[in-house]
Design brief:
This protein has about 475 residues and is of the alpha/beta class. The chain has helices at about 45-55, 60-80, 100-105, 115-125, 140-150, 160-175, 210-220, 240-260, 285-305, 315-320, 360, 450-455; strands at about 30-35, 40, 45, 55-60, 85-90, 110-115, 135, 155-160, 180-185, 225-230, 265-270, 310-315, 325-335, 345-350, 370, 380-385, 395-400, 410-415, 435-440, 440-445. Strands 4, 13, 14, 15, 16, 17, 18, 19 and 20 form a 9-stranded mixed sheet that branches. The protein has an 8-stranded parallel barrel with strand order 5-6-7-8-9-10-11-12, surrounded by 5 helices. Strands 1-2-3 form a 3-stranded antiparallel sheet.
């Protein structure tokens, strides 16, 4: 029977035998506690990271990013080679992009997917060859398209009939032939939050199959465009391969029809591969994921008697998500008891929804651990919250932490490498934290943290003297 305190816990959350333990798969492979009970990331104890960089701070394990990039590259290369074709794996920069990240993934064999002029600028600043870039987006501006075409971008993913004409005109002005894909909606709904599902019909991305047939016919008429194939992305944070199989089967119907009008050398099945945020999450191993998806596509092509195209994939979260751990300082703790007798301990930290908007946006679940020490005190049901003026400013909704968690403790939230820095804001005029890479027992800043002066510098009503 649940105690009053535990009645607020969701069914999936189990009282841990050890509230100091680090769940396998949720943390970077390098994460462990040293002899003093301090969590170590990339060979560096978190207390040293905090002394050097303060809190909050997003810590990225470089070796974890590189290992996952290599794993995706090798798994899809092996799976496609088994069937006599090849794979192109793009890192989805929207998860988190900096020049360092771009260099790491390219060095491990990946291409890079961008979806705005800003992301394109970062990738180019990192020295990524334009031919290794793909450009997404449902509303690429004419200036963004001009820039992408002018630098020789590898592919542009067409999202609407309007873009067909825009890209063709830009390529004609540049005197080049631009390679393009057409994004389609397969009608398969990802097993995830509605806002993360991107292949159902009533949403902003892609085209219906009927509209795609018309768009491809037009592309093939235009001498400044080179049609490579279709693209489909069914959503994010997906476990298993059932959704990918069904989506691929439907897209192959379109692929076969398009072959009647000319070559279709490539099929891009997008990304959306999930990671573990809590101990109960069970993502599909990368090698199995790749083998089963490619086997399914190969079988579908064989059934239709059509050649297996080059296959492309776009993992983002699955490469960088687990590599990130956000460190906070505990500011206050507050036990809250309801009339029913149920209670939980609120633990307030020095960040919040400005550095991790995902819980507020769509109820994302995270884990947490006291990182600066261990404790023998029994665990208490806690909710980790931020410092912002919103009741929805929740960092970790449900977690068991040692009941003696106290002001001054360093709290670590794992699996924050994806969509945290990317979605960060200055809500309540809070500066965005630094992103620090760790490897081999050392750390370096790869994205500088903001200061109050940085935040105030955009306010034209403040004099230089008054900003300090």
């Amino acid at each position: 029977m649940l105690s009053p305190a535990d009645s607020l816990a969701p069914d999936w959350l189990v009282i841990p035998d050890d509230a100091n333990g680090l769940a396998d798969g949720v943390w970077p492979a390098s994460a462990h506690r040293d002899a003093d009970g301090v969590i170590v990331l990339g060979g560096l104890p978190v207390d040293e990271i905090v002394r050097a960089h303060g809190t909050p701070v997003l810590v990225l394990d470089e070796d974890e990013v590189r290992a996952r990039a290599r794993a995706f590259h090798d798994a899809f290369a092996a799976a496609t080679a088994h069937h006599g074709t090849s794979a192109r794996v793009y890192y989805a920069g929207k998860a988190f992009l900096s020049t360092a990240i771009a260099r790491w993934v390219v060095e491990e064999g990946l291409n890079v997917d961008v979806c705005t002029g800003g992301e394109l600028a970062v990738a180019l600043a990192a020295g990524v060859e334009p031919a290794r870039l793909g450009f997404h987006g449902n509303n690429k501006s004419e200036s963004e398209i001009e820039r992408a075409v002018s630098v020789g971008i590898g592919t542009i993913i067409i999202d609407s009939a309007i873009e067909v004409e825009r890209v063709a005109a830009a390529a004609e002005r540049a005197g080049t032939v631009q390679r393009v894909l057409v994004r389609v909606n397969s009608g398969v709904h990802a097993e995830t939050h509605d806002f993360l599902a991107t292949a159902h019909e009533d949403q902003k991305f892609g085209m219906t199959f009927a509209d795609a047939l018309t768009a491809v016919a037009r592309i093939r008429e235009l001498p400044s465009l080179d049609f490579l194939g279709v693209h489909c992305h069914i959503g994010s944070q997906i476990f298993g391969v059932a959704g990918f199989r069904e989506s691929a089967a439907r897209v192959l119907e379109l692929h076969e029809k398009l072959l009647a009008g000319g070559e279709v050398p490539l099929l891009n099945l997008g990304g959306g591969f999930g990671i573990a945020y809590t101990s109960v999450d069970d993502p599909t191993p990368i090698a199995r994921l790749a083998a089963e998806i490619v086997d399914s596509v190969a079988a579908g092509c064989a059934e239709r008697g059509i050649p297996l195209p080059i296959l492309a994939f776009e993992p983002g979260r699955a490469i960088v998500g687990t590599a990130g751990v956000t460190l906070y300082e505990v500011g206050t703790t507050k036990p809250v008891t309801l009339d029913s007798g149920a209670s939980r301990l609120y633990v307030s930290v020095d960040g919040g929804m400005s550095d991790n908007a995902r819980p507020a946006l769509y109820g994302a679940q995270y884990s947490a651990r006291v990182a600066s020490r261990t404790s023998t005190v029994a665990p208490a049901l806690t909710r980790v919250v931020g410092k912002h003026c919103e009741s929805g400013d929740i960092v970790v909704d449900h977690e068991y932490l040692p009941a003696d968690v106290a002001p001054g403790d360093t709290l670590a939230v794992p699996a924050t490498g994806a969509y945290c820095a990317s979605l960060s804001s200055n809500y309540n005029h809070v500066p965005r934290p630094a992103v620090v890479a760790v490897a081999g027992g050392s750390s370096r800043v790869i994205v500088r943290g903001e200061t109050i002066d940085d935040v105030l510098s955009r306010d034209t009503g403040i004099s230089n003297e008054g900003a300090r």
